[in-house]
User: Fold this.
Amino acid sequence: MNHCEQCTINTKHNICPLCSQQLASIDSKMENRTYPAYDRQSLGKRKAPRIAVFAGLSIILACIFINLIIMPHFLWVFYVMGSVAYAVISLNHTILSKSHLGSKIVGQVASLTLLLLLIDSQSGFLRWSINYAVPFLIVAGLVMVTLSILTKRLKWKGYISSILMIALSFLPAALYFSGHATVIWPSAVASLYAFMLIVFFGVFAHQTLWTQLSRRLHI
Amino acid sequence: MSDQWYKIDNTGKIFHALSNAENSFVFRVSMILTERIDREVLQQALDQIVRRFPTLTVSLRKGLFWDYLEKNDQKLMVQEEETYPCAPINLKTSSGYLIRVIYYNNRISFEVFHSLTDGSGAMEFLKTLVYQYLLLKRKNIHHDNMILLPQDLPGTEEIEDSFEKYAYKNDRKSIRMKEDPAYQITGTALDTAGISVIHGIMDGNALNRHAKGHSTTLTAFLTALLIKVISNQHTGHEPIAVALPVNLRRQFPSRTMRNFFAVANIGVKVEDDTNFEEILDEVAMKLVSRTAKESLQKGINHHFQLQRGMMTRIIPIFLKYPAMRYGFNHIGERTKSMTLSNMGNVKLPKSMEAYVERMDIALYPTSRSPISCAAGTINGRMTITFTLSIAETDIVRDFFIELKRLTGLEIEINSNEWGNSNEPL
Assistant:
């Protein structure tokens, strides 16, 4: 046992834990340690998501500056903002996060939908996004959800993602009936697919889904 | 599929809402035995006791309005200690459990996410684990009705939410006493995620006698001493407040294994000429008043009503949790300078005492309260443990120097050397 005169305490350590003064120079054996020697390298904070957000914001700010100085009559910066935001979401949520597949599919469909709507609205709003691109994107998302249902037993999070995906599928139809979209058949395909998925859940959903629902919704 | 589930108790909901990488809300209780821990035997002991504690052997599940706990059927494995105490629990590597059983040399540690239980519940689990371990090691020990035995069935009173049981349901007027913002300790954040742990080990009986000599309790004595040493670095006018968790089982006849505690903030405005005796008198007086049964009852009622309101219940958690985080960071955490949890004298069966050297408790620090303190005594040996997420150790150093000066007790200091930049022992 070593003694630190300055702190008036005894310690097994060779360096005083309170004032960091060297008390002895002989290395203690492992069996005398109070705590293990740590591997601190593995404990570094995750920086990639923050770097991505910082880089994204920097690019957007730089582009706003350049756009306003050089070409203020044509605001191309909105294309950049949408694309950079999509890239950051894709990196942080789709690639780096530990979210399950269903959540990543919904995240991709939702963010790509917003990006397509932004690009269309900024380029004269020819309605190609809401007439064709978004409905087909949603159908693609539904196909991926269906494949994940067929290939592995669905857990709760899978159900939630599917429900969100189904809810999103009625967006094109809503846009058509509100007069924003002008072509019906892509929207109808997305809605029909969503209805079929609802029927599929009604017939094949595991009994535990209903038990889980009562727990998940308790107040 | 597990068919047993539990709502998170009234206090546990708060910890769950607030936890993140900087605020793990994971605390540790440990017993240091007299001989090296045998991993195989510890695993056997754990396998035999886990079902005795159904509210601890659970997984966290997501809900829309509240998350909840579900029975976990995975095997809970003991782990050799590798990382720092109170590290956040990684659900991917813990098989979904919110608890950890860790061993290192002679020490068995139980770490638990605070949403599941408080210090008393955790200590009951640890006592049963150590009892079963010693039995399997063929030690001649007896439970003396002081241990929850693995073969017994858990009673309904052990799994109840005692806040709901003991709250006056119609008392809608209980208002939390408004507290002034307290002095906030700040410092240099440690280089890597993790906490520095410093233990001070001493004769608990002698320290208790010393506190009694001042006509006060050990908790009041330690609180006053903390306030005194914190005041050395405090130049403002805010009070220095120590948050003291109060075990409600001592005032209400609960046997729950879940959270059942209140927090009493004891704040003192320290001027240049305030001496230790004056601080001690004020702390002792406030402690008596804040831990009186009527005061605690009001706290339970307030806490219950806060979460019983329909608006609180029907707001989805993605809106509710950020609001709770804001309240915690900007109101709750601002009213304390530090937390001190004194578990008191933990009683073991006489026959077990020979195999247990001492115990310790490590309480997580938080981002706004970067130093926490916890104390516990077993077999007359008391361990006061500081956990720090900052590099500066002045407060801890001053505390032990002052404790030694006031009491003359021999103090042994150990640490996990987290703040020492990998310096060797």
Notes: DSSP finds eight helices and two strands in chain A. The two ends of chain A are 56 Å apart (CA to CA). The first helix of chain A runs from residue 48 to 70.
